[in-house]
Amino acid sequence: MSTAANAVVLLVALLHVYILVLEMFLWNTPRGRKAFGTTEAFAAESKVLAANQGLYNGFLAAGLFWGLTLGAGGLQVKVFFLLCVLVAGLYGAATANKRILFVQAVPAAIGLALLLLA
Questions:
Q1: Considering the entire predicted model, what is its pTM?
Q2: DSSP 8-class letter at 28
Q3: Phi and psi (nearest 5°) for 27?
Q4: Any idea what the Cα angle at residue 68 is, between residues 67 and 70, rounded to 5°?
């Protein structure tokens, strides 16, 4: 398995841990509001929904970490979870914020390409 591919998978997993922290624990803070471009009022009203989203991002990260622990046998797990990230990123870019395409979908696509070409 390619070291570059696994490095990208690790970076995508770490990104989703960071998103989990932002959505679950920092949503109401200035840092969380700045990251998502929300107002204090919106952040207060949507805190529970954001925490739920953060939990899902944590599951994506956990799946990617799991795939990495399986070594060469983890290819299918990594591909599945990167596809999940890619679909979520495409949907988020289409419905919420175009920036999600570059933050979430493009890294997942790069990881997939590297895994499948290795």
A1: 0.93
A2: T
A3: -55, -45
A4: 70
Query: Which spans in the chain are helix H?
Result: 3-24, 30-36, 40-45, 47-69, 75-95, 99-100, 106-117
Q: What is the pLDDT of residues 63-72, one digit of tens each?
A: 999 999 999 8
Residue listed under structure tokens 């599951």: 59
pLDDT in tens, 70-94: 998 999 999 999 999 999 999 999 9
Task: For the chain, give the number of residues.
Answer: 118
Q: What angle do CA 96, 34, 58 make, to 5 degrees?
A: 65
The first and second tokens of residue 56, run together, are: 């899902």
Give the tens place of pLDDT for each residue, 103-114.
999 999 999 999
Quick check: helix, strand or coil at residue 72?
helix
